[in-house]
Amino acid sequence: MEVRKTLHSHILFAALLTAFLGFSYAVRAQQDCKATVGGQSADMSKQAVAFLPNELWIHAGDSITWTFASGDIHTVTFLTVGQVYPFDQSLGCPPVTPSGLPFDGSSCVSSAPLTLGQTYQVIFPTAGNYEIVCLVHGQMFGTIHVLDTTLPLPHDQAYYDKQAKQQLQALLADADLQQQHAQHHNSIANMFSAKITPRTAAVTAGVGEIAATAGGQQSFSLVRFVNGTVTIHAGDTVEWNNLDPEIGHTITFGTVPQDQIDPSCSPNCVVSTDPDGSLHATITSTEQNVHSGLIAALLEDEPGVPQGPVAPPTRFRITFTAPGTYPYVCAFHDNLGMTGTVIVLP
Ligand SMILES: [Cu+2]
Q: Are 143 and 54 in contact (CB under 8 A)?
């Protein structure tokens, strides 16, 4: 009974699809390929910002179901050729489209930002080569090759499963190297900062690295404040920077504000700009809420996009005047455990 019902709905679906597309559609077994979006280490500190794998070959009429595998959010999005990459990921391409719709290049489809355990399916009725993008991470993309049903497929599901696993391992394996890299940068930052302000401590908010396959780009991110617990004396300044080419972070003390992109400080304090472009706040009490806004490594230049000012802010400094314990978080990644503490001694 149930089998017949399923079969019936499949035939009905194929008939509807044929009618919808307006051409003769040979009814054949539709394959559903499985792939993964993102991946992470057990403690969530290491994030693979990648489609895994990021290149697949399927037949026209087949579908792909992506399973999201990280606490960090991503989208599965197919834009049309010529469409501008949208700024607000929550709006979709726009709009956010339901799982299970066809994409043939004529109008965009996009999941909402999704996380661990959620799935999203897209059907590809028309042969062609399509780019898959993540609206959260500009350097996370891949290619879907949709071949005519008469052509053989170069790989099977077992191959893609193996590739997904290998690519995930390769990205996450960079972690130890990157951590050392960050610690090295910390000592360098200390040296340079010491020339600006006596007794300046430095913290790296995240480290990342971009990798590529022939089908697109993937990246690794260490989503942690490296040496995030610092002990200083009243009057000292701590400087945070971000060495991740892909992911932005915040340095947030107290309540996370509504506007997470722009810097803010309350009550009775301001975030000012140092002569070198760095943001700078002074905290006089543990009761104050200080938010850096988005801190990122300087963005790459994009062909066709006019040269803008040096943006976004790449460093955040706070001068602490009162002894006490000051916990802080990254407002974007506190769910992944990205936290730190500044201990201010007299
Ligand atoms: Cu973060």
A: yes
The model carries a pTM of 0.76
Looking from the CA of 61 toward its CB, the CA atoms found within 13 Å total 19
Q: Comparing C-alpha atoms, which of 34, 51, 60 is closest to residue 123?
A: 60
Structure-token pair, residue 310? 């040096």
The tens digit of pLDDT for each residue in 163-189 reads 999 999 988 886 545 555 555 444 433
Distance from Cα 158 to the centre of ligand 1, integer Å: 34
CB 99, CB 77: distance < 8 Å = no
Q: What is the dihedral of CA 247, 250, 256, 261, to 10 degrees?
A: -70
CA-closest candidate to residue 219, choices 286, 334, 306, 142: 142
Residue 50 CA to ligand 1 center (angstroms) comes to 17
Torsion over CA of 228, 229, 233 and 237, rounded to 10 degrees? Answer: 10
In the reported structure, the alpha carbon of residue 104 is separated from the centroid of ligand 1 by a whole-number distance in angstroms of: 35
